[in-house]
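Here is the promised in-class demo. Please do not try to memorize the tokens; focus on the logic of going from shape to residues.
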């Protein structure tokens, strides 16, 4: 068969676009998702499905990069379909479309633990235009980022490997000041990265851990439950005024900044209703700034996958006071915005794959600062 030059151009253009399969039992929602996705020239919707069983068949036919998968559907729901989709293609990126309910949050986080790449919260009918626009923006951003990640991980013509970060990193900090706290910031792709990191830390990690994860309020208590169930450190939403204890994870609650106050030896949680920063509340920067102020050079900051640059200003404060900053690398990040901003600003002592961040924290907490 002869392929014309025009066909070759079209083929190259298709390889540059994210190929998406949309699965939802509502014809109205399917149509909406297709319209939103196809409006972006870098996305090509290759097929649709009304339930998980149809999605499995469509995946075999269309080989999508990304599957947008509804949770509650007849015949086969999203949670049942997910492992079959990943078994057929381990590199496929699955985005769960979740309702903003306790049940929806729990199933979504179970799906992330089973291998889904990320999620998008569906807008409610009463939330209005602002919610619909936020949904559109988040959907497009995640689908494009995950489509690019799929192509990076696929061998052959579509592969676009991400080289290791070659920029400057700060010299390893000597262990003259033993770390006393870890503060972690994350956004897009963060729950999956957090699950891996917390598992790697195990149940004997000796420091308190603060986490700010950009996430709807309905999801955060469920996220804390899932982190606890991983069998490592216990996790809960932080409470105003509680003393910060070793061996505990404190998660920023919905719509409130997580900060610390008081003397280092008896530091306590401080929750703030202050204005959003970097369009977020909770935001990473207020947490990092307060940790720098209270703990100084005894703080470790970790910046995981996420869009934008939340955490950059706070990381500067951590470094200025002698603390250590670690950043997730581009190859394992869903979006290398937040960690990339820190890395490019030369604030990170190490830029690491997500599976090496936990071991690095264990080394730092034991005083082996130069170890990775």
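The designed amino acids, position by position:
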């Amino acid at each position: 068969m002869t392929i014309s030059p025009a066909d070759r151009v079209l083929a190259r253009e298709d390889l540059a676009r994210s190929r998406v399969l949309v699965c939802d039992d509502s014809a109205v929602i399917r149509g909406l998702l297709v319209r939103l996705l196809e409006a972006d020239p870098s996305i090509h919707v290759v097929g649709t499905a009304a339930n998980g069983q149809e999605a499995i068949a469509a995946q075999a036919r269309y080989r999508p990069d990304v599957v947008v998968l509804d949770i509650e559907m007849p015949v086969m729901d999203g949670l049942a379909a997910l492992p079959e989709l990943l078994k057929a293609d381990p590199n496929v990126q699955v985005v769960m479309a979740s309702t903003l309910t306790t049940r929806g949050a729990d199933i979504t986080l179970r799906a992330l633990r089973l291998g889904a790449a990320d999620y998008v919260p569906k807008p409610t009918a009463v939330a209005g235009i602002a919610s619909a626009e936020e949904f559109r923006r988040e959907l497009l951003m995640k689908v494009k980022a995950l489509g690019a990640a799929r192509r990076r991980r696929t061998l052959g013509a579509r592969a676009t490997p991400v080289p290791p970060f070659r920029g400057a990193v700060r010299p390893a900090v000597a262990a003259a000041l033993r770390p006393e706290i870890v503060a972690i910031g994350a956004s897009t792709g963060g729950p999956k990265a957090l699950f891996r990191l917390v598992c790697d830390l195990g149940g004997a990690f000796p420091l308190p851990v603060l986490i700010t994860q950009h996430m709807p309020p309905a999801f955060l208590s469920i996220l804390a439950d899932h982190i606890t169930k991983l069998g490592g450190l216990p996790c809960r939403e932080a409470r105003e005024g509680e003393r910060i204890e070793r061996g505990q994870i404190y998660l920023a609650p919905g719509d409130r900044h997580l900060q610390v106050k008081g003397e280092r030896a008896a530091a306590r949680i401080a929750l703030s209703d202050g204005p959003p920063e970097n369009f977020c509340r909770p935001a990473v920067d207020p947490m990092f700034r307060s940790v720098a102020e209270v703990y100084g050079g005894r703080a470790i900051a970790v910046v995981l996958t996420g869009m934008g640059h939340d955490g950059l200003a706070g990381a500067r404060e951590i470094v200025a006071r002698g603390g250590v900053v670690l950043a997730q690398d581009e190859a394992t990040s869903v979006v290398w915005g937040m960690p990339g901003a820190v890395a490019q600003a030369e604030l990170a002592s190490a830029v690491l794959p997500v599976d090496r961040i936990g071991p690095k924290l264990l080394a730092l907490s034991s005083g082996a600062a130069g170890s990775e």
